[in-house]
Amino acid sequence: MTSKDIEKLEQADRLMFDLAKSHTPQDVILKVGQLLKEAGVLQDTSDDLKTIVAAYNQDAQTEIKKALRRKMRTTVTLNLSALTPYLNNSDPDISAIVTDALDNFKQYGQIVLRFNEKKATWQTEKSTADYQQLFSNLDNRRTNIHNACIDNINILNRLIVDGTPFATWDNPNITQIKEIPRSDIGNAILELCVRKLINNNQQVLTQMGK
C-alpha cells in the first residue's frame, strides 16, 4: 500500500464517520466505494451500496483489531447510552461537554485506524530523516488527542451522577480513571469508535431501505 492509497482510505474514513450527518448518503457511499476501489480494498466493480458499506466496515474492523494493544491491567467499557440524556441537554455547556468528547473520540479513532499502515508505508517510501519527522508529528497528534480523550472520560464520569457511569472497568483496585493504563483506555475508545461507526452505517442503510 502506498501513501496515496492511505490518503484515499483516510478520506473514506472521514466520509463514513460522518455518514449519519449527510443529506446525500447514497452519494457519499458511492464516493467511498470509488476510494476503496482505487486503494485496492474493494475488488467488486459494482456500485451496490450494501457491498460498499460491508467492505468498508470489514476493513475498519480489521485495522482496529491490529491497533488494539495488549490489555495491561483492566478491561474498560464505555457506555454510549449513558450520554443520551446529556447530549441534547437544555444546558448548552453540558451538551458541549458531551459533543466535544465524542468529537475527540472520533479524532482518536481516525488517527489510530491508519496509524500502523502509515508507519509501515513511510518506512519504505521516505528517507530516514523524513520518516522520523513525519512519524514524530503523527505520534504527537495521537498522544495529544489521547490525553484529551482521557480528560473527557474523567469529566463525563463526574457529570453522570445517576445511573451507570460512562466508563466502567473490571479492576476493583483501580478507583480513578487516570489510574487506568493509557493503552487500556485507548482500546476502549477504539472499540467504541468502530462499534458506533458500524452501527451508524447500518442504520443509514436501513433508513434508505437497503
What is the β-strand count?
2
Query: How does the overall form come out from the CA principal axes?
Result: globular
Q: How would a crystallographer describe the biggest sheet?
A: 2 strands, antiparallel
Please identify the structural class as seen in this structure.
Answer: mainly alpha
Average pLDDT: 94
Cross-sheet strand order for the largest sheet: 1-2
Calculate Rg over CA atoms. 18 Å
The low-confidence parts are none
Report the oligomer.
single chain
Strand content: under 5%
Helix content: 55-70%
What are the secondary-structure elements, in order, as H or E?
HHHEHHHHEH
What is the strand and helix layout of this fold?
Layout: H1 3-17, H2 25-38, H3 49-67, E1 76-78, H4 84-87, H5 92-113, H6 115-125, H7 128-159, E2 167-169, H8 182-207
Antiparallel strand pairs: 1-2
Describe, in plain words, how this protein is organized in 3D.
- The chain is an all-alpha fold and 210 residues long.
- The chain has eight helices and two strands; from the N terminus they run αααβααααβα.
- It has helices at 3-17, 25-38, 49-67, 84-87, 92-113, 115-125, 128-159, 182-207; strands spanning 76-78, 167-169.
- A two-stranded antiparallel ribbon has the order 1-2.
- Helix 1 runs antiparallel to helix 2.
- It is globular.
